[in-house]
Amino acid sequence: MLLLDGGLGLVIVASWLFCIFDVLTTDAGRCRNLPKPVWILIVLLLFDFGAIAWLVAGHPWAGSMTNGMPYKGNTGAKYPEYDRPGRFAASNPDDDEAFLAQIRNRAEEQRLQAALQTEQDEPHRRSTED
Asked: Are 17 and 68 found together in one domain?
């Protein structure tokens, strides 16, 4: 019985030491659910419960980065933003005739509106000048 208790204690201490080193060596951006300094305190102060909590809720497992969860450090995207299929690629606006036509039409509309506004304001200016 003494051998079983000693072996269980050794396993608990070994898992605690593993978790301490794992928290310390894990990149801060990959820690899940809590910031890295908080995880360090939890593992150090709560001993076996902290080690279990780190393994369950904090350790960045390989499969957890590809499931699309929106937490800090989720780098498991299938495509980087610049390689995403169907992505709108910016181009030179001087080469886009449709864009230039739209700009010309909007400028012409603004000129017409300004001319109409000037014609509407003209009688008021004449009456105030007399």
From this structure: yes
Check whether residue 64 and residue 118 sit in a common domain. Answer: no
Which helix or strand (DSSP H or E) is residue 100 part of? helix 97-129
Of residues 71, 72, 20, the one with CA closest to residue 43: 20
- Whether the model clears a pTM of 0.90, i.e. scores above it, the answer is no
Q: What is the length of the chain?
A: 130
**Per-residue pLDDT tens digits for 60-87:** 877 555 445 554 455 555 556 566 666 6
Structure tokens at 75: 């780098």
Residues of the chain short of pLDDT 70, as ranges, are 1-3, 63-90, 123-130
Is 87 within a domain?
no
